[in-house]
């Protein structure tokens, strides 16, 4: 009697494992895998549809293969980008006030009155130092101002700094090295080419 119960339990256990391994889990896991691709990437729908063409006994192994491809094509580039941004080529904003204090005759910055008058809609130039790479100076549109601290939107396409056009930037007025109003024709806010950092004398 006990042996029959044990055998029945084993059969039910094997059935549950088969249903999970070859029925439910492949589709569930694939739904998680395809999320690493962009929302508008056609591979999302293609992979989900292709799953049900693959013979059922081959689906677990096929899903594992798709995980390997997604890791190589989608996950690894993102991880590499963030590692470079945060560790390998970490970028930090440099204080214009400190640079001016070091080179008062060759490094100009706006005077305190000009900085006090800055408001949302104005464009300011900020300076980044990048570990192991040339620095950059880029324009940022002010979106919010709270005292001497601001939040802005990057108006350039970075060459060395690991940021994207339109990225949100938090900065202090001490970081500002130049500025212009939104309708200043002499401004360079529409110049998308990043400026490599000038050599200070």
Chain-averaged pLDDT: 82
Number of helices: 5
The SSE string, one letter per element, is: HHHEHHEEEEEE
- Helix percentage: 40-55%
Main sheet makeup = 7 strands, antiparallel
Distance between the termini: 93 Å
User: How many strands?
Assistant: 7
Which segments are poorly predicted (pLDDT under 50) over 5 or more consecutive residues? Answer: 186-201
Principal-axis shape = elongated
Share in β-strands: 15-25%
Radius of gyration: 28 Å
Structural class: alpha+beta
What can you see in these coordinates?
It is a single chain. The protein is of the alpha+beta class and 201 residues long. It is 41% helix and 20% strand. The chain has five helices and seven strands; from the N terminus they run H-H-H-E-H-H-E-E-E-E-E-E. Helix 1 (2-33) packs antiparallel against helix 2 (43-51) and helix 1 crosses helix 3 (59-88). It starts with a helix and ends in a 5-residue tail after the last strand. Residues 186-201 have low confidence and may be disordered.
